[in-house]
């Protein structure tokens, strides 16, 4: 598979050093540079072993595919007004294709909904280079490697956090709205939003579908709207916990806030 991500910028830490994310993320000055250093990361041994094992064993439907098997960076423009924060790449989705929410059932639902509300150029996402363009939206995750059973550990989440913190800091000049998909994305978003200068209410707001919190940032004089949305996982869709109309409604609200 062709590597379409920028080459890493020089850094002082080896990619398998536990401090690589924290010390390297702070050095980058653009979103493109962030993506470049992120894809080299090997800071979490369990996640590295899993993502690479999956790429060898593969799923029968993808037997002929060459898996990406590296950390998956965010996707979307560097001047996005809306950020969508999920959980982690799917083992046979983003870990295979190299693009977040691409080639898996959750992505099928998410990108179709984004297209329906005018935030994506097409309803399908199959592979990088398929023509998909996001309109004012950047999609990212708190954990950039596919975790076993879709469950990163607390330590893995914390080790990976500097990537998300730096990404939101780089988006800060244009960012108006954050949509957190699921409780994991919500909990991961709160500390990085606080670190980027937005004030969190006390007690910290609890996750819920459709929850809306307005966060002030006195440094830049502009608020950001934080919206909660159930994750478009296969299970949530199958059980009706999240329906397509529910997802579209949150995305429409997010788009209105982003344009205001």
Outline the fold blueprint:
Blueprint: H1 20-25, H2 31-38, H3 45-57, E1 82-85, H4 94-97, H5 105-116, E2 137-140, H6 154-171, E3 177-181, H7 182-195, E4 212-215, E5 224-229, H8 234-239, H9 244-259
Parallel strand pairs: 1-2, 1-3, 3-5
Antiparallel strand pairs: 4-5
**Fraction of residues in helix:** 25-40%
- Please tally the helical runs, counting DSSP H or I stretches of 4 or more residues: 9
Overall geometry comes to globular
On the 0 to 100 scale, the average pLDDT is: 94
From the alpha carbons, calculate the radius of gyration and give it in angstroms.
17 Å
Largest sheet: 5 strands, mixed
Number of structurally distinct domains: 1
What is the CATH first-level class name? Alpha Beta
Structural class: alpha/beta
């Amino acid at each position: 598979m062709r590597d379409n991500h920028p080459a890493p910028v020089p850094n002082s830490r080896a990619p398998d050093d536990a401090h690589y994310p924290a010390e390297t993320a702070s050095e980058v000055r653009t979103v493109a540079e962030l993506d470049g250093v992120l894809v080299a990361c090997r800071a979490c041994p369990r996640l590295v072993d899993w993502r690479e094992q999956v790429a060898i064993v593969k799923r029968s439907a993808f037997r002929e595919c060459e898996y990406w098997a590296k950390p998956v960076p965010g996707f979307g423009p560097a001047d996005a007004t809306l950020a969508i924060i999920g959980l982690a790449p799917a083992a046979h989705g983003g870990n295979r294709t190299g693009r977040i929410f691409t080639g898996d059932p959750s992505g099928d639902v998410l990108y179709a909904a984004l297209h329906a509300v005018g935030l994506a150029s097409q309803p399908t996402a199959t592979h990088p280079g398929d023509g998909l363009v996001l309109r004012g939206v950047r999609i990212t995750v708190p954990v950039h490697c596919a975790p076993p059973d879709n469950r990163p550990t607390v330590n893995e989440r914390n080790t990976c956090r500097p990537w998300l913190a730096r990404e939101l800091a780089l988006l800060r000049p244009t960012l108006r709205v954050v949509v957190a998909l699921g409780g994991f994305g919500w909990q991961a978003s709160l500390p990085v939003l606080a670190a980027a200068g937005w004030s969190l209410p006390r007690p910290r707001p609890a996750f819920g579908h459709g929850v809306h919190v307005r966060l002030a940032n006195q440094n830049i004089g502009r608020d950001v709207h934080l919206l909660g949305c159930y994750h478009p996982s296969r299970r949530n869709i199958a059980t009706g916990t999240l329906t397509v109309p529910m997802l579209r409604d949150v995305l429409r609200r997010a788009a209105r806030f982003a344009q205001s």
